[in-house]
Amino acid sequence: MHASSLRFKRPDFAFAVASGLTLMAATIFLLTVALSAHAATQVSSPAQTQIDALSRASAAVVGIQVTVAEGARSARSLGQERTGSGVVIGPDGLVLTIGYLMLEAQQIEIVTQEGKTLPAVAVAYDIATGFGLVKPLLPLRGVKPVNLGSQQDLKTGEPLMVVTGATVDGQDSDVSMTQLVSQRAFSGTWEYHIDTALFTSPPVTAGGGNHSGAPLFNQRGELLGIGSLLVADALGENKRVPGNMFVPIDLLKPILAELQQSGSSRQSHRPWLGLTSTEQGGRVQIVRVSEDSPAEAAGLAPGDVVLAVDDSQVVTLESFYKKLWARSAPDAPVTLTVLQGADIKTVVLTPQDRMLLLKRPAGI
């Protein structure tokens, strides 16, 4: 059985774990045979320990349903209604998800694996990492928080589990098996960068392929990351291998207390220009300019090429973002050298702190 075929509904979880063991270990493959034949009443301790750990991890996954505020900027690109997943990480029911699900949320609901919906409130949204935190207003009974793992222990090719939450329209929690194929820096086109992201393949098929906020677990049931994107180049190296990008849990640990206290990290209060850009052949090219943004006010347009920030050359999105963010204040003026058509121009912009522009969900 190939990894790409491993997709299971949660009621068949023990069998799912065992069936995926062509990726894991021969011992659990033998366990599968034993279970399917009803030939054994007990399983080996290591195999049972692994199944128990993964089952507990799966049980901590919830669905998230969001309606965003009227007139929210993010509705243009992310929609007014959003559906995804989250995972319980705190004894008080604190749920970790991907931040864009709850961005400018007006109403948040948590969907339990029994199909019940609970009202929830936003706790934090962090632009720098992409994480979001929500908390149910009613107790999540019988759900234990997961343990946090670390990417430091991960090896390429290691088998991993992705779980998606239930939905309000009756879709069950779901499980996919995948594997780690790469760990590397990731630069998003939307003024986003993290120095390390986790890339897996094959892509998530659970929950109809809805990877948004889906937790990634290792074989010990420890949380490794939160689902962010479907990508075509999971391997990197200019090879077309479809998969998913996960934000590693290691980025959460140093800022978790700060997020719970203030609703965002200090790193999230940084300059924002309102650009969507790509890097091609050592050039940073603008492909979209947000309405009512500093970039629009300065006359930047799709097709322009950013050559330098404050006279420092930039040739990648990473170098562009890091030069921009290395400023004392989010709204300090910045000088861009841009190529517009055949002309090289110097443009002075006044960036904005995007955390101050977004409609904040109730609670933050």
Word description of this protein:
The chain is of the alpha+beta class and 364 residues long. It is built from ten helices and 21 strands. The protein has a six-stranded antiparallel β-barrel. The chain has a six-stranded antiparallel beta barrel with strand order 2-3-4-7-6-5. The longest helix has 15 residues. The radius of gyration is 22 Å and the shape is globular. The chain starts with 6 loop residues before the first strand and ends in a 7-residue tail after the last helix. The N terminus is likely disordered.
Keywords:
Thrombin, subunit H; disordered N terminus; alpha+beta; about 375 residues; six-stranded antiparallel barrel; single chain; Pdz3 Domain; 2 domains
What topology emerges from the helices and strands here?
Elements: E1 7-9, H1 13-19, H2 26-37, H3 45-59, E2 61-68, H4 75-78, E3 81-88, E4 95-98, H5 99-102, E5 105-111, E6 117-125, E7 131-136, E8 159-164, E9 174-188, E10 192-201, H6 206-209, E11 215-217, E12 223-231, E13 243-248, H7 256-262, E14 271-272, E15 275-280, E16 283-289, H8 294-297, E17 305-309, E18 312-313, H9 317-325, E19 334-340, E20 343-349, E21 352-353, H10 354-357
Antiparallel strand pairs: 1-9, 2-3, 2-5, 3-4, 4-7, 5-6, 6-7, 8-9, 8-11, 9-10, 10-13, 11-12, 12-13, 14-21, 15-16, 16-17, 17-18, 17-19, 19-20
Helix pairs in contact: 1-2
How would you concisely characterize the structure shown here?
The protein has a six-stranded antiparallel barrel. It is built from ten helices and 21 strands.
Question: Treating each run of at least 4 consecutive H or I residues as one helix, how many helices?
Answer: 10
Task: Give a count of the beta strands, DSSP E runs of length 2 or more.
Answer: 21
Radius of gyration: 22 Å
What's the main sheet like? 6 strands, antiparallel, barrel
Strand line-up across the major sheet: 8-9-10-13-12-11
Q: Count up the domains.
A: 2
Structural class: alpha+beta
- Tell me what the CATH architecture of the largest domain is: Beta Barrel
Q: CATH topology of the largest domain, which one?
A: Thrombin, subunit H
Question: What share of residues is helical?
Answer: 10-25%
Rounded to the nearest angstrom, the distance between the terminal CA atoms is 46 Å
Share of β-strand residues: 35-45%
Shape: globular
